[in-house]
Design goal:
232 residues, alpha+beta, six-stranded mixed sheet, elongated
Length: 232
């Protein structure tokens, strides 16, 4: 995941990357274009470590955003100079199914598109991401038994959907600092159970209960994660 434009308050536009496990290219029936179909996001699948936490998309996460009929582009590397298809032109269709966010696109076989298709079919390029914003209180935070922080994007939690993109790399250089900010903001807002803001004072008494032990282990893990993801 990465921030791809400046934040407005706590509403962050970022991209979550998923493996291209079911994307397929075909020759269109007209013989003049390609079709590309697959999933740009998968429900209930934990992401990689995003900077101290993992993220999960709940089924229905895109429902509200898609009802607004957004003008979404299918891009290469989130670059507006490389447009593969667009919903406004009818060459890109997005919908939710039981698996995730389904993508169907009709793509003109220009020179760079043909090269991209070859690279994807070879497995050299095998990831896709989508740029989105989360609505206010559109997410839930939890801590698992092993201290892992998990952010779940709720049903209807995606507020804006801007582009889906085939990507060479899953992240941008500013990812670590940006995701650290997301984590710290959630802590300061009291969204993460058992986790106070990073600069809060330690308790004066010691609680030895199993729950307290798990929270203590989690806090140690949190500090390691935050230190690992500090900007160099």
């Amino acid at each position: 995941m990465s921030i791809i434009e400046p934040a407005e308050g706590l509403v962050l536009r970022h991209a979550l990357t998923v493996p291209l496990t079911d994307m397929e290219w075909r020759q269109s029936g007209d013989g003049e274009t390609y079709t590309l179909r697959g999933h740009a996001a998968v429900f209930n699948a934990p992401s990689d470590d995003l900077g101290g936490f993992r993220e999960i998309l709940a089924p229905g996460a895109f429902r509200a955003a898609l009802r607004a009929a957004p003008d979404v582009r299918l891009l290469f590397n989130h670059d507006p100079n490389y447009v593969l298809a667009r919903t406004a032109s009818g060459t890109l269709e997005l919908r939710e199914d039981t698996h995730g966010l389904h993508v169907w696109a009709r793509i003109a076989p220009t020179g760079w598109v043909t090269d991209l298709r070859t690279s994807m079919q070879r497995g050299d390029i095998d990831q896709m991401s989508f740029a989105f914003t989360v609505g206010e209180d559109g997410d839930d935070w939890a801590v698992t038994e092993d201290g892992t922080v998990v952010r779940t994007i709720r049903q209807d939690g995606v507020k804006g959907l801007f582009d889906v993109s085939v990507v060479t790399y899953p992240a941008y250089p500013q990812t670590d600092a940006s995701m650290r900010s997301v984590l710290e903001n959630a802590a300061k807002r009291g969204r993460i159970p058992g986790w106070a803001a990073p600069d809060s004072a330690a308790p004066e008494t010691v609680d030895t209960s199993p729950t307290a032990s798990r929270i203590h282990a989690f806090r140690l893990k949190r500090e390691r994660a935050l230190n690992e993801h500090k900007p160099k």
